[in-house]
């Protein structure tokens, strides 16, 4: 990393490091979720699509991917919600999150229950909204 001005500038910012870490972590889990869904595809469906005369691209676009996406959606929704909850880890890289704002409000006003209750309500609202959106899909 030394003598690389672009990388040096990128890794000096805590937000960039945090986003890169979260992106790599989520990308790895998401890749395994979708790869597992594709591997769990019934061979009979693929053979039937090939017998029907679908090419490789159409086979993936019309048969494999729709089925794999439907199969992987519950697991992917869990990953998205875990990603939301793991944003509190960003505090270790000096990135403020909802919990940090609640701690600051508690320090300023000494209203512990109210400040953390608001943080809980925000987390629960976003979580239930995500769950609702994934159930609609």
UniProtKB/TrEMBL annotation:
It comes from the Bacteria. InterPro entries: AA_ABC_Transporter_Permease, MetI-like, MetI-like_sf. Gene3D superfamilies: MetI-like. GO terms for cellular component: plasma membrane. This is ABC transporter permease subunit. Belongs to the binding-protein-dependent transport system permease family. PROSITE patterns: ABC_TM1. Its main location: membrane. It is found in: Cell membrane. It comes from Vibrio cholerae. Keywords: Cell membrane, Membrane, Transmembrane, Transmembrane helix, Transport. The keyword Lipoprotein does not apply. It is a multi-pass membrane protein. SUPFAM superfamilies: MetI-like. The chain crosses the membrane at residues 111-134.
């Amino acid at each position: 990393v030394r003598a690389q001005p672009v990388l040096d500038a990128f890794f000096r910012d805590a937000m960039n490091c945090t986003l890169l870490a979260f992106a790599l972590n989520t990308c790895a889990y998401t890749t395994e979720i979708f790869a597992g869904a594709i591997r769990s595809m019934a061979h009979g469906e693929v053979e039937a699509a090939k017998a029907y005369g679908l090419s490789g691209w159409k086979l993936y676009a019309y048969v494999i991917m729709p089925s794999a996406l439907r199969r992987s959606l519950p697991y992917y929704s869990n990953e998205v919600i875990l990603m939301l909850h793991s944003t509190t880890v960003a505090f270790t890289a000096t990135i403020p999150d909802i919990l940090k704002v609640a701690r600051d409000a508690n320090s300023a006003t000494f209203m512990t229950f109210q400040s953390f209750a608001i943080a809980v309500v925000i987390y629960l609202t976003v979580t239930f909204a995500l769950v609702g959106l994934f159930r609609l899909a």
